[in-house]
Amino acid sequence: MYKDLLSKEKTLAVIGLGYVGLPIALEFAKNVKVIGFDINAQRVEMMRNKIDPSQELESSAFENCDIEFTNDLDVLRKANFFIVAVPTPVDEHNVPDLIPVQRASETIGKVIKKGDYVVFESTVYPGCTEEDCVPIIEKFSGLKMVVDYKIGYSPERINPGDKEHTITSIVKVVSGCCDESLDTIAKVYELVVKAGVHRASSIKVAEAAKIIENTQRDLNIALMNELSIIFDKMNINTFEVLEAAGTKWNFLKFQPGLVGGHCIGVDPYYLTYKSKELGYDSQVILAGRAINDGMAGYVAKKVLQHIIQSNGNVKTSKVLVMGATFKENVSDIRNSKVADVVKELKSYSLNVDVSDPHADSDELKHEYGFELTKNISNDYDAVIVTVPHNEYKSLDEAYFASITKEKAMIADLKGGYRGKIKNRTYWSL
């Protein structure tokens, strides 16, 4: 398989061309023949025109790539090595939503042939690839794993907005259903991952590795958020405490904040779901999730308390929320906890405007029911800087004074303006 891909006698396909799939597809397309498959015809057309729908990649990233973008199953049938990079979200009850990965498995089952390879990159709980996806592939294909085709798992490590840690520079975990498949899958990924690969002993180990990467981050941020709540009651600035503690060589430099997006705020639920299914109720992981999911309400309440004390009339008060994406310098609004802040503020009858240089107003309206404001006012009772976009870093006290009332609060969640706001009430996590 490896030699045939390298000689372009066989073709590699990437199914799902979002934040994860498109960069992988383009990187492979510099070395082998690639089919980029996505069910969204509009997105496919954009990529044919060298436009990244996720706004992460420049048009130059499409240059010198041997790739065919399609949503046609007949085209996908030409592939021999399939990489699945579809989203794996949770539903409104925080239960894993496997529909995208199940549909991708069905699609593969309809096109796979003897001798083909399938590698899943979508984040799932340990066991999902072999217990949930393989039976679907075999139902629609009539083929048997190991005997007729090979399966593997290699967790994605794409970090949206990060131009330093890219697919080529991050060690890639790979796994396979047998020794032969592990060796082949490792060699294929070594074509594009300059940092090298780590060969996991089993598919389940690779799946678990991905889950705990983000679970660990989630728990560490939850600790910082809880400390922030405690320190606020003591009138201590959390970021000053972290700055001091960070002088020790082994202190982990995590910060408080809203935890959203499609990884850290989602992945732990896949692990706790599977754990519960096996008869163990998670304690530490779910405690961390509860803290992080509660931060939007905590922020909204702090702002409300200030407004009540300084204005008194909540229904006439105005709040500006700066930043709507799930993290800085990206356009991705999936699972953005800023939306929860807006919802909480509005539940108190406050008038809320939202601005963001990266987010799409129509997407926000469709997903969360609010739009970006077209005109920034000059009489806000509070401004909440939720996401530290680069565009916000040059703003100074004069700017915030120009858009707020004299007794307004500047709620700077990530502490970017610490020590710079003197003439307004300043607060940070």
Report on the structure:
The chain has two domains: about 1-200, NAD(P)-binding Rossmann-like Domain (Rossmann fold, 3-Layer(aba) Sandwich), CATH 3.40.50.720; about 225-425, NAD(P)-binding Rossmann-like Domain (Rossmann fold), CATH 3.40.50.720. The mean pLDDT is about 95. Helix 5 packs across helix 6 (about 130-140) and helix 8 (about 205-235) crosses helix 11 (about 285-295). Strands 3-2-1-4-5-6-7-8 form an eight-stranded mixed beta sheet, with helices on both faces. A five-stranded parallel beta sheet has the order 10-9-11-12-13. It has about 425 residues and is an alpha/beta fold. The longest helix is centred in the middle third of the chain and has 31 residues, at about 205-235. Strand 7, helix 7 and strand 8 (about 195-200) form a beta-alpha-beta unit. The termini are far apart. Helix content is about 40%, strand content about 15%.
